[in-house]
Amino acid sequence: MHSNKAMKQLLLDIKPAAPPTLLNFIEGQNAEALASLNAVLNQQAQSNFIYLWGETGSGKSHLLQACKALNLTNQNQADQNLISSNFIVMDDVHLLDNDAQIGLFNTYNQLKENDGTLIAAGLHAPTQMHLRGDLATRLAWGLVYQLQPLNDAEKALALQNHAAERGIRLPSEVVEYCLRYLRRDLSTLMATLDALDEWSLTTKKPVTVPMLRHLLQLNLEI
Asked: What is the CATH number of domain 31-146?
């Protein structure tokens, strides 16, 4: 018989989510933005300046971290100092104070002069964040994309695809329960699914809504 203590330990031992990549980003309605980022990284872009905006959970940070990591892995180790100075990733632009905004404005101009790349992101469009006018104008000169969060159907599809990759039989009622009662960001949903899979393998029982309820209750007690 498997104890609650064992299940709690399982929850504590759940592996962290896979690092963000462009391949494991669920594009939903954001195919154009994803294509432009891939073009920048493959040096085939119409513009090396991309600004992403959208609400929390829309995938901005995922994409920026993926671009930064992929850029570094594409370069020789000896060139990383040069690359890092000519390929800038800047998240949370809406939080920059005046001095930081001046710094980003100067960085933009240097990158423009040196054929560099800037991929930046914030909560709102460049002209809607009360930024310095000169910086807002620069950010708006490049490609600007509003990221759309996944709708429930797209999240359900992402969960089913993730389950299929792991060989999990995932009943539709479990997916519906996740979308109704869990935090709706995809990383939380995926981590929960991974925990369910591990516990299902441990107990040799199928994934069910009662198993999910039990897991969530224990998670609250940790």
From this structure: 3.40.50.300
